[in-house]
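Re: that backbone. Tokens:
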């Protein structure tokens, strides 16, 4: 929630000779459903130095600039013509935890228990957990306990994944892609901000990467934190991309 204060504190690192360049190559869109637009973002993170650089970067997602400051993914901003608009979470991702579960043989589902056991089988395979263990948990505590286990497992795996720093060789370019969706809603309200996206205006998209170091001490494994503190080129700073037009018209 305090990204802007973190950005302010790190602004002193934005000076001559930026070690990284953040460059948006393209952002394409298609209307896959009547009330949904899919966007595909392609961008590069470029090492401008002759050193091997280390930093945290989650390339799987993006977050609104109003999000929490401890995210490892880039933050996005939306501009209407030349004006930044603080609309918050305008975009969404899909299928992050269990929403990808789908029934393919609906005729076999006669009761809620049948559905639950199908989902348990799916989660057992997805999270490489013995099916018998999940079945026992289900019989003892029900489906809520299964979902609690899944969320803990998911965030455990996420923490492990995010404990791995990104490494860029001298002058290397890292190609990144991200897919996200807009439900075509134009009206946004979150007290005290109220906004309506003008369908006739031009809109532009920009991303910012906030590279932190000591701030991640409680968010990553202790042995990883100890290791990165010893790295000579584990960088900190704020890196802002170019702006590109994004299709938010009707």
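Recovered sequence:
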């Amino acid at each position: 929630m305090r990204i802007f204060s973190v950005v302010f504190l790190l602004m002193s690192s934005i000076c001559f000779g930026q070690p990284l360049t953040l460059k948006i190559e393209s952002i394409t869109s298609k209307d896959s459903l009547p009330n949904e637009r899919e966007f595909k973002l392609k961008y590069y993170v470029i090492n401008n130095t002759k050193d091997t650089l280390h930093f945290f970067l989650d390339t799987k997602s993006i977050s609104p600039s109003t999000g929490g400051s401890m995210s490892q993914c880039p933050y996005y901003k939306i501009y209407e013509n030349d004006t930044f608009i603080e609309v918050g979470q305008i975009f969404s991702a899909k299928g992050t935890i269990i929403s990808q579960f789908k029934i393919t043989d609906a005729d076999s589902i006669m009761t809620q228990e049948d559905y639950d056991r199908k989902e348990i089988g799916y989660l057992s395979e997805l999270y490489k957990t013995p099916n018998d263990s999940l079945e026992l948990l289900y019989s003892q505590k029900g489906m809520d306990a299964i979902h609690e286990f899944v969320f803990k497992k998911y965030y455990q795996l996420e923490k492990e994944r995010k404990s791995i720093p990104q490494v860029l060789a001298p002058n290397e370019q890292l190609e990144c892609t991200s897919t996200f969706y807009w439900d075509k809603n134009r009206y946004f309200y979150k007290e005290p901000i109220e906004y309506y996206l003008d369908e006739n205006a031009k809109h532009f998209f920009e991303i910012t990467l906030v590279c932190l170091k000591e701030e991640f001490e409680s968010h990553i494994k202790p042995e990883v934190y100890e290791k990165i503190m010893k790295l000579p080129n584990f960088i900190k700073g704020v890196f802002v991309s170019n702006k590109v037009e994004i299709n938010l018209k009707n």
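The two ends are 32 Å apart (CA to CA). The mean pLDDT is 83.
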